[in-house]
Structures are given as C-alpha cells and as structure tokens.
Amino acid sequence: MLVARNVTKNYSNLPVLKGVDISVSKGEIVTIVGSSGAGKSTLLHILGTLDAPSGGQIFINDVQTSTLQGRKLADFRNRHIGFIFQFHHLLPEFSALENVCIPGFIAGAKKSAVKERATFLLETLGLKERLEHRPGELSGGEQQRVAVARALINKPDVIMADEPTGNLDSRNARELHQLFLQLRDQFGQTFIIVTHNEELATMSDRQLVMKDGKIVS
C-alpha cells in the first residue's frame, strides 16, 4: 500500500535521512521509534507529502507522490492521507463537528454526506454528546478523538500520526491506543505512527527502529 525506496533528506549539508526503505501493507499499524534526532518526524512528514525528499521514491497505492506538485499534490494528500499530531490543531472557533467536516468540504464532497459521515465518526469515537462543543470545551482526550475523526473523514488510505499521545495523560493515551486497534479492525485502517510511547509501540503490528537517519531494525 505504501512503499518508500532509498529516501534521503538533506538540510544544507546536513544529511537527516540516509537511504530509508519502508513497505507498509493495508490494515497494518506500524510504529517508528528511536531517540530524538533520529529522523522519525522528518521521515513521517516526507511519507505524508508534507515535505519533499532530497532523493528516493515514495508510492502510495502505486502513485509516485514525488511526481505530484501544487494543487494535484494537495488534493492527493487531502483525499488519501490523514494526519494526527501531538497538538490537535483544531480550529477554536468551530465546533467538533465543523472541525471534522473541513477536509471533506475541501475535497468537494456533498455537504450533507460529509456531515453525516462526520457525525457517524464522532459517535463511533464516543463523542455523541460533544458534536456542537468547541475545542476549548473539550478535554485533551476528547480533542484528540476529534482530530482522529477529522483524519478519517475522507476515508484515507493511510493515517500518519506524529506523537499522537505525547500531550495526553496515561489513561487517555491508553484509550487512544485501543482506539487505533479498533479502527484497524473495524475499517481496515492503516497507521504509521511516530512515538516514544513504549506501550503504543508494543501494541503495533510492527516496530521500525530509527538511528542516525536510517532504519536499523
């Protein structure tokens, strides 16, 4: 489903990624672990098309993403990749439902269908009573669940998560871990997750260990 071949990334004369190869199957939960500065987030951002590699090839469902530019790249990203970050990046002036709907509206889907799916996702994630609440009225765990629903709204091929539990207490982090497993089982959702959380890494189908810009195991 996702294949990366010999991906490199340099910032000026500093090599950050030094030839990374990854293959991820549909419905897999893969975690990327390693010490700070190993290149984990850089790799995730490149896999998610938020940054461009200095070299190498990345394919998502046989589409070579590095050949896409501008509006075509933005459209591909919106339709095929979901993102969850450590800090939820919800828009404070909008309700939970509206935040989840935004990527669907950007994709040009019918508004009634987007709202129906957003409502279904939020209810599935245990937020039935929070649809009209703004982010400031939600707990940290609830905000992260809204972010998960937003990532799912366009039925993406893969969700990229960068330290998704880094801003949560242990209970909410554990609940989010279970949620990822539920979404994999219920929807066949694929996840690539950068994390320092050992519990989350252990629960994944496969761990990739990064060191000095390379996958070492």
UniProtKB/TrEMBL annotation:
The keyword Cell membrane applies. Coiled coil: none annotated. PROSITE patterns: ABC_TRANSPORTER_1, ABC_TRANSPORTER_2. One of its GO terms (cellular component) is plasma membrane. CDD domains: ABC_MJ0796_LolCDE_FtsE. One of its GO terms (molecular function) is ATP binding. This is ABC transporter ATP-binding protein. SMART domains: AAA. GO terms for biological process: lipoprotein localization to outer membrane; protein localization to outer membrane. Keywords: ATP-binding, Cell membrane, Membrane, Nucleotide-binding, Translocase, Transport. Belongs to the ABC transporter superfamily. InterPro entries: AAA+_ATPase, ABC_transporter-like_ATP-bd, ABC_transporter-like_CS, ABC_transpr_LolD-like, MacB-like_ATP-bd, P-loop_NTPase. Residues 2-216 form the ABC transporter domain. The keyword Membrane applies. Pfam families: ABC_tran.
